[in-house]
Design a protein that fits this description.
Helix 4 packs across helix 5. The protein is globular. The chain has helices at residues 21-29, 31-34, 45-56, 106-120, 136-145, and strands spanning 4-6, 11-15, 62-68, 74-84, 89-96, 126-132, 148-159, 162-172. Helix content is 28%, strand content 36%.
């Protein structure tokens, strides 16, 4: 796999490995990351290892680590899941785990890199996502990366006993032949 990098943003994507498990579990359980996910249950090492076995190793998902070009240190993760090869689509997700890396445009750059990977390497036609409507910074970042709003789902999920709205967004491959 060719290295996916953005020199301006100072990041690159690399495939996630088993060695990244403890870091991912730590990040996903941090309040700053957890509160923006629809699935907010505590994240465990066993759960992540199950994700690797049932999703990554089967090809139903691809997960990459977002790393700084300088220092080669992981700062977050980006993934596509539920890859539908027949309809050439998948669901996108991202989190910036390192607090010092948030608010610097790294999520937008990582989304752009992952979309390029999805369209060029995976030959997907459509990549979609669901975001909590209250997560305005993420929605803005997704829009900058090329996602467009397609729907607004009122009271779609119940988190901590409260119904929350969801924004549905997608990016479509600009080359319809892929």
């Amino acid at each position: 796999m060719q290295k996916l990098s953005d020199r301006t943003a100072g990041i690159y994507l690399r495939p996630m490995t088993h060695d990244d498990t403890d870091l991912i579990v730590e990040w996903r359980n941090s309040e700053e990351v957890r509160r923006n996910f629809i699935y907010q249950e505590p994240f465990t090492r066993e759960g992540h290892e199950n994700w690797i076995a049932t999703m990554i190793e089967t090809g139903n998902a691809v997960q990459m680590m977002i790393c700084g070009l300088e220092g080669d240190r992981p700062v977050g993760s980006v993934y596509i899941r539920d890859i539908d090869r027949r309809h050439k689509k998948a669901e996108y997700g991202i989190f910036i785990g390192e607090a010092s890396a948030r608010g610097r445009g790294l999520g937008t750059a990582a989304a752009e890199l992952m979309l390029a990977y999805c369209f060029r390497t995976e030959k997907l036609h459509r990549v979609y996502l669901r975001a909590l409507a209250s997560n305005i910074p993420a929605i803005r970042s997704y829009e900058k990366a090329g996602f467009v709003r397609e729907g607004y789902l009122k009271d779609d999920v119940c988190i901590d006993g409260k119904y929350r709205d969801i924004v549905w967004m997608a990016a479509v491959n600009p080359d319809p032949l892929d």
